[in-house]
Design goal:
Chain lengths: 363, 124
C-alpha cells in the first residue's frame, strides 16, 4: 500500500521531520528537537503546532441531521448548541467502538464530524449504510481538509494576530468560523494534550501559508511521539489502544459520552446489557512506584495473579512510569499491583487520570 | 556524528575502551541518535559475569526499548549510576559521561571493529 501524504509533507521535510507510517499516512514522529523537547514546548508554556491532517472530516446535512446523529452516535447531540463541539463515539450493534469522534454543530441541519484516520473508510461506509431512513447527506471532506492543532499556553497569543475574530470569545469545546486570506477556516478550542489550544480546519490551499505563518509567529512543530506522551498523561483514549470494537464504553470508562436515556441509538441495548452484567475488563490508571517504564502489552499483576496488560505506557517527565491498563474487574478497585518488566515485577499503585494536571480552559 | 579513533566498536553499535584488563562500555553516537531521547537505562548488577554478545543493559527512549550487548566477556566491576537520574547523558555524551558499565575482562571478546571499519560499516 502506498502511504498518503498531507499537504504539509514538504514542510515536514524542510523542518527535518522524521517521517514514519501512521494510519496509512507518512507523518512526522519527531523533528530535530526530539520528542522530549517537543513535549516540554507544549507542557511548559510554549506553543506546539501539529499537522493532524490525516484525521478525517465528514459533513452531515439535511433536515434529519439531528435525528440521524442521535441514532449513529452515543452522546446526546440534542444538547449541542450552534458553535459547540461534543466528544462522542460511533458504536456497533454489540456496543463496541467503531470510532471515537467529535461532533460540531454548525446549524440545526448541518453538523461536522472529526474522525480517526485509520477508521475513515470504515466510518464512512457505516454512516452511509445507516442514512437510509433519514433525509440526510453524508459527505467525506477529508481529502480537501487540512487539520492543524495549536496547543500550549501560548496558543492563543500566537494565533490571535493571524485571525480576525476574538479567540478569547471561543470557550472550551466551542468553535467559530472565520476567513484567513479569503479561505474559510473553522477554529475550535479543543485538543489532545491537556493544554489550552485550538484545532483549525482549513482548505488545503491554506495549509502551507498558515503553517509557515504560525511557525514564524513562534509555534514549534511537534511530532507524533510527543503527541502520544501528552495524550497518555491526560489518560485520553486512543483508538486501537484503549478503545476498539472489542470493548464497550462500560469497559473504557466512557459512559460519560454514552447517553442511554436519550432514545434509541446503535449499540444502546448492548451497552445497557453490558452495564447490567458488569464489564468484562476495566481500564485503570497505574503509576509505577519502582523504577522502570511500563510499555504496551506488559503484563499486569494483582498480587500473584496475572490480571491484564498495559494498553498505553510511557515515561512521563512529570509523573514517571505511567500506564493505562485493562485488568479483570475483580481487581479493578483494590490490589497490590505490579507490572512485569523483563521478567521482574515492578510495584505500581492505582491512580486517577489525568496523570498530570490538565490546563484546558474550561469556562 | 563522532566515532573516536581510540575506541573499538561492535556491529550492534556498542563501543568499548580497553585499558589494561578493564573495559568501559557504552553505546555509540550513531546508536543514541537513532534511538532518540533516552529516558531510562537499566544497568547490570555489579559482579555479574558477562559472555561476549550477551545482553547486559537496556536503554529506553521515548518510543523504543533496546538491549545493549557486551562487546567483551568478564565481570561487571562498576556501573554508571549517574544514568539512573540523568539517562540523557547517553545522548549528550555517549563516549564520556554516558558510559554504561566497566568490566574486568576475561580475554573473550565479540567481533570488534576499529574506527575505520565501523565508519565503513555505518556507510554501507
Amino acid at each position: 500500500m502506498t502511504l498518503a501524504r498531507t499537504p504539509l509533507f514538504d514542510e515536514h521535510g524542510s523542518a527535518g521531520g522524521k517521517m514514519v507510517p501512521f494510519a496509512g499516512f507518512e507523518m512526522p514522529v519527531q523533528y530535530p528537537a526530539g520528542a522530549l523537547k517537543e513535549y516540554h514546548i507544549v507542557r511548559d508554556g510554549g506553543c506546539g503546532l501539529f499537522d493532524i491532517s490525516h484525521m478525517g472530516q465528514v459533513r452531515v446535512q439535511g433536515p434529519d441531521a439531528l435525528a440521524f446523529l442521535q441514532y449513529v452516535t452515543s452522546n446526546d447531540v440534542s444538547r449541542l448548541t450552534e458553535g459547540q463541539v461534543q466528544y462522542s463515539a460511533l458504536l456497533n450493534n454489540e456496543g463496541g467502538f467503531i470510532d471515537d469522534i467529535t461532533t460540531y454543530k454548525l446549524s440545526d441541519d448541518e453538523y461536522y464530524l472529526c474522525i480517526n484516520a485509520a477508521n475513515r473508510h470504515k466510518d464512512l461506509a457505516h454512516l452511509q449504510r445507516e442514512t437510509a431512513p433519514f433525509r440526510v447527506s453524508v459527505c467525506d471532506e477529508s481529502d480537501a481538509t487540512t487539520l492543524l492543532a495549536l496547543q500550549g499556553e501560548q496558543a492563543q497569543s500566537t494565533l490571535q494576530p493571524l485571525v480576525n475574530i476574538n479567540l478569547a470569545g471561543i470557550g472550551y469545546y466551542r468553535f467559530a468560523t472565520t476567513e484567513i486570506d479569503d479561505h474559510a477556516v473553522m477554529i475550535s478550542r479543543t485538543g489532545y494534550t491537556g493544554e489550552d489550544g485550538f484545532e483549525l480546519y482549513l482548505p488545503n490551499a491554506l495549509a502551507v501559508p498558515l503553517w509557515r505563518a504560525l511557525l514564524a509567529a513562534g509555534a514549534r512543530p511537534i511530532g507524533l511521539a510527543a503527541r502520544d506522551m501528552l495524550r497518555t498523561e491526560m489518560g485520553y483514549a486512543l483508538y486501537g489502544h484503549e478503545i476498539s470494537d472489542q470493548v464497550t464504553p462500560v469497559e473504557a470508562k466512557l459512559m460519560w459520552i454514552t447517553k442511554l436515556d436519550k432514545g434509541d441509538f446503535i449499540g444502546r441495548d448492548a451497552v445497557r446489557a453490558r452495564r447490567e452484567q458488569g464489564p468484562e475488563r476495566c481500564l485503570i490508571a497505574l503509576k509505577l512506584t519502582g523504577r522502570g517504564i511500563p510499555r504496551e502489552h506488559y503484563r499486569v499483576f494483582a498480587g500473584d495473579a496475572a490480571t491484564g496488560e498495559v494498553i498505553s505506557g510511557m515515561f512521563s517527565p512529570i509523573a514517571g512510569g505511567i500506564a493505562l491498563a485493562y485488568v479483570q474487574p475483580e481487581h479493578a478497585e483494590t490490589g497490590e499491583f505490579s507490572v512485569e518488566i523483563r521478567g521482574r515485577r515492578i510495584a505500581a499503585e492505582r491512580t486517577r487520570t489525568p496523570f498530570v494536571r490538565s490546563r484546558v480552559k474550561k469556562s | 556524528m563522532t566515532i573516536p579513533a581510540d575506541l573499538q566498536y561492535t556491529k550492534e553499535h556498542e563501543w568499548v575502551r580497553i585499558e589494561g584488563d578493564t573495559a568501559t562500555l557504552g553505546i555509540t553516537d550513531h546508536a543514541q541518535e537513532a534511538l532518540g531521547d533516552i529516558v531510562f537505562v537499566e544497568l547490570p548488577e555489579i559482579g555479574r559475569q558477562l559472555a561476549p554478545g550477551e545482553a547486559f543493559a537496556v536503554v529506553e527512549s521515548v518510543k523504543a526499548v533496546s538491549d545493549v550487548y557486551a562487546p567483551v566477556g568478564g565481570e561487571v566491576i562498576e556501573v554508571n549510576t549517574l544514568l539512573e537520574s540523568e539517562p540523557e547523558k547517553v545522548n549528550t555524551d555517549a563516549y564520556g559521561e554516558g558510559w554504561i558499565a566497566k568490566v574486568r575482562m576475561n580475554g573473550e571478546t565479540a567481533e570488534l571493529l576499529d574506527e575505520a571499519t565501523y565508519t565503513t560499516y555505518l556507510e554501507e
